[in-house]
Amino acid sequence: QVQLVESGGGSVQAGGSLRLSCAVSGLTLGTVAAAWFRQAPGKEREFVAGISRSGSNIKYEDSVKGRFTISRDNARNSVSLQMSSLNVDDTAVYYCAADLAYEAGLNEPDYKYWGQGTQVTVSS
Asked: Which of these, 65, 71, 97, lies nearest to 84 by C-alpha position?
């Protein structure tokens, strides 16, 4: 059974940082592309960052470029999202996603496996 479990969410003031982690079990991380999505209250879930199976191709949503960094540790079966310079617009539930693909897609249907999400709240 494949499981993705996010951790590291919490509350932080604007300008602060958080590091999200996604522990993957039930499959070998080196066989999947992975991504982070987020869903703010009243909004649709949106792509935040994605990383290819090899780690060589990384994509970011425009508003997080230069502030967020996605990385993967295949040996630990873990994907991380380092978030800096957080602002109130980053407040959302953040989801880890994975799929047996080489490249990271930008859309929800591109991913078969999902975590339950972790809440990130940024206050001004």
From this structure: 65
Cβ pair 94, 83 in contact under 8 A: no
**pLDDT tens digits for 9-56?**
999 999 999 999 999 999 998 999 999 999 999 999 999 999 999 999
Whether 77 and 28 have beta carbons less than 8 Å apart is answered as: yes
Span 82-100, mean pLDDT? 98
Instruction: Spell out the residues 6+ positions from residue 14 whose beta carbon is closer than 8 angstroms to its own.
Output: 86, 87, 88, 122, 123, 124
Q: Return the structure tokens found at 52.
A: 């290819």
